[in-house]
Design goal:
Shape: elongated
Strand content: 25-35%
Distance between the termini: 120 Å
Number of helices: 4
Oligomer: single chain
Largest sheet: 5 strands, antiparallel
Helix content: 25-40%
Radius of gyration: 36 Å
Structural class: alpha+beta
Length: 227
Amino acid sequence: MTSTDVKPEESRKRTRASRLSRWSTLPIALLVVAALLFLGSRLDLLPGFGDLFGEETQDRTGPTLLTSIQDLDRYEAASGNFQVVVDLEKDAKYLPDAIRGTRTLYVGAGTVGSYVDFSGIGKDNVQVDEARTTATIRLPHAQLGKPALDADRSYAVSKERGLLDRLGDLFSDNPADERAVNRLAARHIGDAAKDSELTARAEKNTTAMLQGLLRSLGFTSITVVYA
């Protein structure tokens, strides 16, 4: 056997040996990475080491701009807290729910205010006797404001989505949009406020406020009429 026959064989052996050595170091590297990740999750329990692998939150929000100012000519006399459980389901006509369809169970909490509008009150709405001891005030009936959902007390209990809906969320800028359940929760809260005694409580509180104010001015007989 000549020297030219031995050299290619030795070269192939060296190549195989170098490949084996590379593959043998790969599990060690993976173990090192796993150990670092494990330590990163455990170092939060040790004082002084939590910041090593901790997250840093930065608020880069711009300045808040005042867009408009509106004078309020009404007396906010009462406010009601409401909560509703919304069960919203959307189905496809010819597809099973596992393929296309969504169902969201959502707890919506919010408030509705009731107020008396003072903007249209004029001299004809207030009658005072000559001795300035008796007064009669005519006001419009109390009204309900728009429902305001409380984001801190509203939350989704469960979300079920079909396969096509899950794939659509991957390409959507706003996956699992909750605007539909928010609108539905606000509508139900508004309907509940209409069926409640919120406006009656607002008129009662407004009457008490005006009577206390006019009594401090020397009036002894105050009548408030809502028409």
